[in-house]
Amino acid sequence: MPPLDPQTIAAAVVGYQQELERIESRMAAIRAQLGGQQPAKEAVEKAAPRRRRVMSRAARQRIADAQKKRWAAFHKAKEQAKPAPPAKPAAKAAVKVKTKAPAVVARKAAAAKKPAPAAKKVTAPAVKKPLAKKAARVKKTPVSPPATAAQPAVAPVVS
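The structure corresponding to this sequence follows.
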Protein backbone atom coordinates (compact mmCIF):
# COMPACT_ATOMS: atom_id res chain seq x y z
CA MET A 1 0.00 0.00 0.00
CA PRO A 2 1.57 3.30 -1.04
CA PRO A 3 1.95 6.01 1.60
CA LEU A 4 -0.94 8.49 1.66
CA ASP A 5 -0.50 12.23 1.66
CA PRO A 6 -1.79 14.30 4.63
CA GLN A 7 -4.74 15.77 2.63
CA THR A 8 -6.12 12.30 1.84
CA ILE A 9 -5.81 11.23 5.48
CA ALA A 10 -7.57 14.42 6.68
CA ALA A 11 -10.42 13.83 4.20
CA ALA A 12 -10.76 10.22 5.41
CA VAL A 13 -10.98 11.39 9.02
CA VAL A 14 -13.73 13.90 8.13
CA GLY A 15 -15.67 11.22 6.26
CA TYR A 16 -15.42 8.72 9.12
CA GLN A 17 -16.46 11.42 11.62
CA GLN A 18 -19.63 12.16 9.60
CA GLU A 19 -20.40 8.43 9.37
CA LEU A 20 -19.92 8.09 13.15
CA GLU A 21 -22.36 10.96 13.82
CA ARG A 22 -24.93 9.38 11.49
CA ILE A 23 -24.59 6.00 13.28
CA GLU A 24 -24.87 7.64 16.72
CA SER A 25 -28.06 9.47 15.71
CA ARG A 26 -29.59 6.17 14.55
CA MET A 27 -28.54 4.50 17.83
CA ALA A 28 -30.19 7.34 19.79
CA ALA A 29 -33.44 6.82 17.85
CA ILE A 30 -33.36 3.08 18.58
CA ARG A 31 -32.70 3.74 22.29
CA ALA A 32 -35.69 6.07 22.37
CA GLN A 33 -37.86 3.30 20.92
CA LEU A 34 -36.59 0.90 23.60
CA GLY A 35 -37.72 3.32 26.27
CA GLY A 36 -34.30 4.29 27.54
CA GLN A 37 -33.08 0.73 28.13
CA GLN A 38 -29.44 0.00 27.54
CA PRO A 39 -28.46 -2.35 24.78
CA ALA A 40 -27.17 -5.71 25.90
CA LYS A 41 -23.58 -5.02 24.80
CA GLU A 42 -23.21 -1.96 27.01
CA ALA A 43 -24.84 -3.77 29.91
CA VAL A 44 -22.32 -6.59 29.58
CA GLU A 45 -19.41 -4.17 29.43
CA LYS A 46 -20.56 -2.41 32.60
CA ALA A 47 -20.99 -5.74 34.40
CA ALA A 48 -17.46 -6.88 33.56
CA PRO A 49 -15.28 -7.20 36.68
CA ARG A 50 -12.83 -4.42 37.29
CA ARG A 51 -9.16 -5.24 37.45
CA ARG A 52 -7.59 -4.82 40.86
CA ARG A 53 -4.98 -2.16 41.28
CA VAL A 54 -1.48 -3.38 41.89
CA MET A 55 0.00 -1.73 44.96
CA SER A 56 3.60 -1.90 46.01
CA ARG A 57 4.62 -3.26 49.39
CA ALA A 58 5.89 0.17 50.45
CA ALA A 59 2.54 1.77 49.58
CA ARG A 60 0.66 -0.82 51.63
CA GLN A 61 3.04 -0.20 54.53
CA ARG A 62 2.45 3.58 54.35
CA ILE A 63 -1.31 3.02 54.41
CA ALA A 64 -1.01 0.68 57.41
CA ASP A 65 1.19 3.15 59.29
CA ALA A 66 -1.25 6.00 58.63
CA GLN A 67 -4.17 3.87 59.86
CA LYS A 68 -2.28 2.96 63.06
CA LYS A 69 -1.49 6.64 63.63
CA ARG A 70 -5.18 7.58 63.23
CA TRP A 71 -6.29 4.88 65.67
CA ALA A 72 -3.64 5.90 68.21
CA ALA A 73 -4.88 9.50 68.06
CA PHE A 74 -8.48 8.32 68.41
CA HIS A 75 -7.71 6.20 71.49
CA LYS A 76 -5.61 8.97 73.03
CA ALA A 77 -8.45 11.47 72.63
CA LYS A 78 -10.90 8.94 74.07
CA GLU A 79 -8.61 8.30 77.05
CA GLN A 80 -8.28 12.04 77.77
CA ALA A 81 -12.02 12.59 77.54
CA LYS A 82 -12.73 9.76 79.96
CA PRO A 83 -13.22 11.03 83.54
CA ALA A 84 -10.94 9.58 86.20
CA PRO A 85 -12.59 6.86 88.29
CA PRO A 86 -13.43 7.92 91.85
CA ALA A 87 -10.79 6.96 94.40
CA LYS A 88 -11.76 4.15 96.76
CA PRO A 89 -11.23 4.70 100.44
CA ALA A 90 -8.14 2.92 101.68
CA ALA A 91 -9.92 1.62 104.78
CA LYS A 92 -12.33 -0.55 102.75
CA ALA A 93 -9.50 -2.07 100.76
CA ALA A 94 -7.62 -2.94 103.95
CA VAL A 95 -10.69 -4.55 105.51
CA LYS A 96 -11.26 -6.71 102.44
CA VAL A 97 -7.66 -7.91 102.50
CA LYS A 98 -7.89 -8.79 106.19
CA THR A 99 -11.15 -10.70 105.81
CA LYS A 100 -9.98 -12.64 102.76
CA ALA A 101 -6.56 -13.61 104.03
CA PRO A 102 -7.61 -16.22 106.67
CA ALA A 103 -9.96 -17.93 104.23
CA VAL A 104 -7.22 -18.15 101.61
CA VAL A 105 -4.73 -19.48 104.13
CA ALA A 106 -7.19 -22.11 105.37
CA ARG A 107 -7.98 -23.23 101.83
CA LYS A 108 -4.31 -23.61 100.98
CA ALA A 109 -3.67 -25.59 104.18
CA ALA A 110 -6.57 -27.96 103.43
CA ALA A 111 -5.29 -28.51 99.91
CA ALA A 112 -1.81 -29.32 101.22
CA LYS A 113 -3.20 -31.96 103.62
CA LYS A 114 -5.10 -33.84 100.90
CA PRO A 115 -3.20 -36.75 99.38
CA ALA A 116 -2.32 -36.50 95.72
CA PRO A 117 -4.86 -38.20 93.44
CA ALA A 118 -3.87 -41.75 92.51
CA ALA A 119 -2.70 -42.34 88.99
CA LYS A 120 -5.23 -44.10 86.80
CA LYS A 121 -4.48 -47.62 85.68
CA VAL A 122 -3.65 -47.97 82.03
CA THR A 123 -5.74 -50.69 80.47
CA ALA A 124 -5.54 -52.18 77.04
CA PRO A 125 -8.25 -51.05 74.64
CA ALA A 126 -11.22 -53.37 74.33
CA VAL A 127 -10.99 -55.82 71.48
CA LYS A 128 -14.06 -55.98 69.29
CA LYS A 129 -15.51 -59.36 68.49
CA PRO A 130 -15.66 -60.25 64.81
CA LEU A 131 -19.07 -59.83 63.22
CA ALA A 132 -21.17 -62.96 62.88
CA LYS A 133 -21.71 -64.28 59.40
CA LYS A 134 -24.67 -62.92 57.51
CA ALA A 135 -26.28 -66.35 57.28
CA ALA A 136 -26.28 -66.62 61.06
CA ARG A 137 -28.03 -63.26 61.36
CA VAL A 138 -30.92 -64.19 59.06
CA LYS A 139 -33.96 -65.21 61.10
CA LYS A 140 -35.48 -68.51 60.19
CA THR A 141 -39.23 -68.58 59.72
CA PRO A 142 -41.07 -71.20 61.79
CA VAL A 143 -42.14 -74.22 59.78
CA SER A 144 -45.65 -75.52 60.41
CA PRO A 145 -45.94 -79.27 61.14
CA PRO A 146 -47.09 -81.48 58.28
CA ALA A 147 -50.81 -82.15 57.95
CA THR A 148 -52.02 -85.34 59.63
CA ALA A 149 -54.96 -87.58 58.88
CA ALA A 150 -56.99 -85.83 61.57
CA GLN A 151 -56.38 -82.50 59.93
CA PRO A 152 -57.12 -82.68 56.20
CA ALA A 153 -55.26 -80.24 54.00
CA VAL A 154 -57.44 -77.42 52.77
CA ALA A 155 -57.58 -77.10 49.00
CA PRO A 156 -57.88 -73.64 47.48
CA VAL A 157 -61.37 -72.62 46.47
CA VAL A 158 -61.78 -72.03 42.75
CA SER A 159 -64.51 -69.61 41.80
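Helices lie at 6-34, 40-47, 57-81, 90-113, 134-137.
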